[in-house]
C-alpha cells in the first residue's frame, strides 16, 4: 500500500503526458520533456518506447489518446490519514487550511504517538494569534512578492525597524523556529518570526536595494575520527545534513570533510566538541585554534 | 534478470541508499554481502534516481560512490525519489489510466461488465488491443477499493463501482512544509506530485533526511500503535549481520532532530521492560494481537520520560536512577549561556547560582546520554559530578585526552 506504483514517478509522468494528449497530439519531444521533469535519469527512453510501441495502450503510434479526460486521482486512504495526522499538529494553524472534510478519518499518527525529545524548549508560539497573523502575512508577501515593514527585537533586546522584500521561510526543527529571509533592504535580512513585534505590508513606493540577496559564505572543516564507542556512525548521522565526504584512513580512523555556512561556525564548533576525543580537527588552522581556545579556557576552570 | 530503474521491493535499495548517503567511503569490493552485479545494478539505479547528488571518488581501494546533499539547499527531500520507483506491468498502467478515465465523474457508477465493455471500446484504437478478463479487472478494482480510490455500491444483486470523491484540498505551502517535517512526509510528497510545478517558499535548516528511507516501517509501526496491537519486529544487527525477532508492544516513536534517528519505545514482555529499538535497523514489522494493557504501558512510559535524556531506559551501573550535575561560569556579556541551559535541557533543573554561574542537575536512567551535551559547554565547566563514577572517570579522561590531542598537555603541537 505504501510502496505502490500509483504514487510512482512513471505514473506521474504518464499522467502529465496524457493530460497533454487529450488536448492535442503528443510528439516524442513532448514526452521527453515531461519525463525529464517528472521521472528519473533513464526513464525517458522506457516511457517513450512503451507508449509509442503500444506496450502501454494509452497513446497510439501517431500520438493520440483514446482517453477523454485529463487524468486525475482521488486521495487515497493513506494520503487522507496522513493529512488528518498533520491537521492535529499545532503548526498547521499557520496555514489556515480547513480539514473538516476529514472528520471521520483515522489519523496515521496522533501527537501522542510521537516524542521529539531533543528540540529546544523555546520554540515559536504556534498557538498565538499575533504570531499566526504575522506568519500568514509574511507567507502572503513571499507568495505575491510585496514589501513588508516590521519591528523586531535583536539579540540585545533592542527594537529595529526593517522594510524588506520577504523571499522565503527557513525552518529549523532543532530550534523549532521559523526565520524569514528577505532582500531589498540595506542588507540581506534574516528575521526570527518569533521576535517580530508587529508587521504590515509596506504600501509606499518601494525601490529594493539590489545585491542584497542572501549569499551564504561556505567554509570547510576537516577532522580525523577514531571509531570508538560507535563514533563513526554517530558522527556521520549527526553531520548528515551537511555536504560531506568520508574517507577511510586506517582500520578505525576516518577523514571527514564537512562544508558549512560561516555564520554557523560557533554552532559547528560546539557540535565538534560534543564528540570529545573521538574527533580531532586537522584543518583549517583557524578552526583548530577555536577548539584550542576553548580547551585552554577549560583547563583554567580546573576540570 | 534484466536491469530496470524500477524495483519490486524497496528493502535492498533502502540499505544501499543508506550506505551511500550516511557512510559513502566503501568501495565496490567492500559491499561483499551481495554480488558485484547486484551492487552495480543498485548503484546505477540510485544514480538514475539521484543523479545530481551522486558523487564518486577514486581511492586506493577502488572507486567510492557517495551521496552528498546539503539539505539546507533542497526544498524537498531527494531521497523520496526511491519511494516513487515501484515496478508495474504493462497491463497495470494501461488499466489504471483507462479505468479512471471511464470513472472520471463521481456520478458515474458502472457494473463490471459495463466497465469491461468501455475498456474494450477504448482499446479498439490500437492495432493489437490488450485483452482484460473479468478477474483481472475485478482484482484491480479490489486493490483500488482497499486504497480508497474506488467505492463499491450494491444495487440489487449487482455490484457497481464509482470513483471516490476525495478531492485534493490542501494548499501547497502546507504540503511543502509538512512533507519535510512530519513523519512519513513522503506521503505529502506523493500528493504534491499530483499538483505539479509550483513555487516553493520553504527551506530547512538542521534538516535530517535519512529517515525517509524508513517511511514504510514507520507507517507500519504507527498502524500498530493506532490499533494498540503487539508486533513482531525483525531487527538487523549490522555488525553481526544477523536478524533478531522481537515480540513487543509498540508505545511511542521518539524522533531526534539533532541526528535524525528515530527510535521505537516498546514494551518487551520477555524482559518485562520498556526499551528502545532503532527504526533504521528494523527489517520488517508483523502486526499481532491487540494488547489490552496498551494504555497503562503508555502511561508508564510517559512517567518514565521525566528521567530520560534520550531514548535509553537503563544505565550501565546498578543504580536504577543516576544523578548528574555540573556548573558553568560565564561573563557578564554571556547571559545567553544560562538561557542555553534552559532551552537545551530535556529534563532536570537549571539553577542560577549568581550572576555568572548556573548549575544543571538531573536524575536520569543513563547519564552517558548527557555527556555529548555537557561537552558543548567545554571552556566554562567549573564543577561536575556523576553518581556513576565510571561515567565521571570516562568524562574526565576524555577531557584529558582532548588536551593531549591538541598538544595542550605535552605531546604533539
- Report the principal-axis shape of chain A: globular
| Count of alpha/pi helices of chain B | 12
- Structural class of the secondary structure composition of chain B? alpha+beta
- Roughly what is the average pLDDT of chain A, rounded to an integer? 93
CATH architectural name of the largest domain in chain A: 2-Layer Sandwich
The topology string of helices and strands of chain A comes to: HHHHEHEEEEEEHEEHEH
pLDDT < 50 stretches of chain A: none
The appropriate CATH architecture of the largest domain in chain B is: Roll
Q: Biggest sheet of chain B, in brief?
A: 5 strands, antiparallel
Termini distance of chain B? 57 Å
Shape of chain B: elongated
Quick one: how many beta strands of chain A? 10
**Overall helicity of chain A:** 25-40%
Widest β-sheet, arrangement of strands of chain A:
5-4-3-2-6
Query: How much of the sequence of chain B is in beta strands?
Result: 15-25%
Strand content of chain A: 15-25%
User: How far do the termini of chain A sit from each other?
Assistant: 56 Å
Largest sheet of chain A: 5 strands, antiparallel
Pair with the biggest interface: A-B, 124 and 143 residues
- Per DSSP, the total helix count of chain A is 8
Describe the fold and architecture.
- The complex is a heterodimer of chains A (303) and B (413).
- Chain A is of the alpha+beta class.
- Chain A folds into four domains: 1-73; 77-113, no CATH class; 129-201, SH3 type barrels (Roll); 218-300, Alpha-Beta Plaits, CATH 3.30.70.
- Chain A is 31% helix and 23% strand.
- Chain A has eight helices and ten strands.
- Chain A has helices at 9-21, 28-38, 43-52, 77-87, 129-144, 231-238, 265-273, 285-300, and strands at residues 114-116, 148-153, 159-172, 177-183, 189-192, 196-201, 218-226, 243-250, 253-261, 279-283.
- In chain A, strand 2 (148-153) and strand 3 form a beta hairpin.
- The longest helix of chain A is centred in the middle third of the chain and has 16 residues, at 129-144.
- The model of chain A has no long low-confidence stretch (mean pLDDT 93).
- Chain B is elongated, with a radius of gyration of 27 Å.
- In chain B, the strands form four sheets. Chain B has a five-stranded antiparallel beta sheet. A four-stranded antiparallel beta sheet of chain B has the order 13-14-12-15.
- Chain B is α+β, with helices and mostly antiparallel strands.
- Classes of the chains: A alpha+beta (303), B alpha+beta (413).
Amino acid at each position: 500500500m505504501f510502496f505502490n506504483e500509483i504514487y510512482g514517478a512513471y505514473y506521474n509522468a504518464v499522467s502529465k503526458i496524457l493530460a497533454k494528449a487529450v488536448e492535442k497530439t503528443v510528439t516524442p519531444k513532448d514526452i521527453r520533456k515531461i519525463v525529464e521533469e517528472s521521472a528519473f535519469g533513464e526513464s525517458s527512453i522506457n516511457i517513450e518506447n512503451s507508449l509509442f510501441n503500444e506496450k502501454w495502450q494509452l497513446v497510439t503510434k501517431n500520438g493520440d489518446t483514446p482517453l477523454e479526460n485529463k487524468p486525475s486521482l482521488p486521495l487515497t486512504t493513506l494520503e487522507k490519514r496522513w493529512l488528518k495526522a498533520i491537521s492535529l499538529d499545532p503548526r498547521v494553524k499557520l496555514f489556515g487550511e480547513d480539514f473538516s472534510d476529514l472528520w471521520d478519518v483515522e489519523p496515521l499518527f496522533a501527537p501522542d504517538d510521537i516524542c521529539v525529545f531533543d528540540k529546544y524548549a523555546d520554540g515559536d508560539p504556534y498557538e498565538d494569534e499575533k504570531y499566526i497573523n504575522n506568519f500568514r502575512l509574511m507567507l502572503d508577501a513571499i507568495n505575491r512578492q510585496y514589501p513588508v515593514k516590521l519591528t523586531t527585537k535583536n539579540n540585545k533586546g533592542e527594537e529595529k525597524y526593517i522594510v524588506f522584500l520577504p523571499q522565503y521561510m527557513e525552518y529549523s526543527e532543532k530550534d523549532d523556529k521559523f526565520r524569514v529571509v528577505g532582500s531589498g533592504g540595506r542588507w540581506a535580512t534574516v528575521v526570527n518570526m518569533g521576535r517580530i513585534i508587529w508587521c504590515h505590508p509596506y504600501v509606499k513606493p518601494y525601490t529594493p536595494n539590489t545585491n542584497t540577496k542572501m549569499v551564504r559564505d561556505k567554509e570547510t572543516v576537516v577532522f580525523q575520527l577514531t571509531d570508538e564507542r560507535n563514533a563513526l556512525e554517530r558522527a556521520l548521522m549527526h553531520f548528515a545534513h551537511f555536504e560531506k565526504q568520508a574517507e577511510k584512513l586506517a582500520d578505525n580512523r576516518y577523514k571527514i570533510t564537512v562544508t558549512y555556512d560561516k555564520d554557523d561556525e560557533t554552532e559547528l564548533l560546539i557540535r565538534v566538541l560534543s564528540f570529545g576525543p573521538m574527533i580531532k580537527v586537522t584543518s583549517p588552522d583557524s578552526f583548530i585554534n577555536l577548539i584550542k581556545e576553548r580547551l585552554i579556557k577549560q583547563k583554567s576552570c580546573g576540570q | 534478470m534484466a536491469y530496470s530503474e524500477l524495483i519490486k521491493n524497496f528493502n535492498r535499495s533502502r540499505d544501499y541508499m543508506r550506505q551511500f548517503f550516511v557512510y559513502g567511503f566503501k568501495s565496490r569490493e567492500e559491499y561483499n554481502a551481495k554480488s558485484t552485479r547486484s551492487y552495480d545494478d543498485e548503484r546505477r539505479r540510485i544514480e538514475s534516481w539521484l543523479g545530481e547528488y551522486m558523487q564518486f571518488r577514486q581511492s586506493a581501494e577502488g572507486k567510492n560512490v557517495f551521496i552528498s546533499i546539503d539539505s539546507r539547499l533542497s526544498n524537498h527531500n531527494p531521497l523520496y525519489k526511491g519511494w516513487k520507483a515501484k515496478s508495474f506491468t504493462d497491463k497495470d498502467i494501461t488499466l489504471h489510466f483507462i479505468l479512471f478515465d471511464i470513472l472520471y465523474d463521481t456520478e458515474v457508477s458502472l457494473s463490471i461488465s459495463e466497465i469491461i465493455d468501455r475498456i474494450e471500446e477504448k482499446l479498439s484504437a490500437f492495432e493489437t488491443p490488450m485483452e482484460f478478463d473479468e478477474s483481472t479487472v475485478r482484482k484491480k478494482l479490489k486493490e483500488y477499493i482497499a486504497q480508497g480510490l474506488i467505492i463499491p455500491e450494491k444495487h440489487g444483486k449487482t455490484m457497481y463501482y464509482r470513483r471516490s470523491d476525495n478531492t485534493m484540498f490542501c494548499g501547497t505551502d502546507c504540503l511543502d512544509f509538512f512533507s519535510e517535517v512530519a513523519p512519513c512526509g513522503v506521503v505529502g510528497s506523493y500528493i504534491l506530485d499530483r499538483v505539479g510545478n509550483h513555487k516553493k517558499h520553504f527551506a530547512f535548516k538542521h534538516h535530517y533526511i535519512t529517515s525517509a528511507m524508513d517511511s514504510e516501517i514507520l507507517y507500519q509501526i504507527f498502524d500498530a500503535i493506532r490499533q494498540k496491537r503487539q508486533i513482531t519486529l525483525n531487527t538487523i544487527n549490522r555488525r553481526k549481520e544477523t536478524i533478531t525477532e522481537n515480540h513487543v508492544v509498540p508505545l511511542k516513536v521518539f524522533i531526534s532532530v539533532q541526528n535524525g534517528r528515530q527510535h521505537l519505545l516498546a514494551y518487551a514482555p520477555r524482559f518485562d521492560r520498556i526499551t528502545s529499538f532503532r527504526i533504521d535497523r528494523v527489517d520488517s514489522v508483523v502486526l499481532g494481537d491487540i494488547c489490552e494493557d496498551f494504555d497503562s504501558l503508555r502511561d508508564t512510559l510517559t512517567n518514565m520520560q521525566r528521567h530520560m535524556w534520550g531514548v535509553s531506559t537503563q544505565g550501565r551501573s546498578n543504580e536504577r536512577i543516576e544523578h548528574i550535575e555540573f556548573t558553568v561560569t560565564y561573563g557578564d556579556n554571556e547571559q545567553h549561556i544560562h538561557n542555553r541551559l534552559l532551552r537545551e535541557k530535556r529534563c532536570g533543573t537549571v539553577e542560577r547560582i549568581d550572576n555568572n554561574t548556573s548549575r544543571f542537575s538531573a536524575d536520569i536512567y543513563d547519564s552517558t546520554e548527557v555527556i555529548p551535551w555537557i561537552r558543548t559547554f567545554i571552556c566554562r565547566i567549573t564543577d561536575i559530578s556523576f553518581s556513576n563514577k565510571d561515567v565521571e572517570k570516562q568524562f574526565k579522561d576524555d577531557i584529558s585526552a582532548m588536551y593531549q590531542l591538541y598538544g595542550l598537555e605535552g605531546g604533539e603541537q
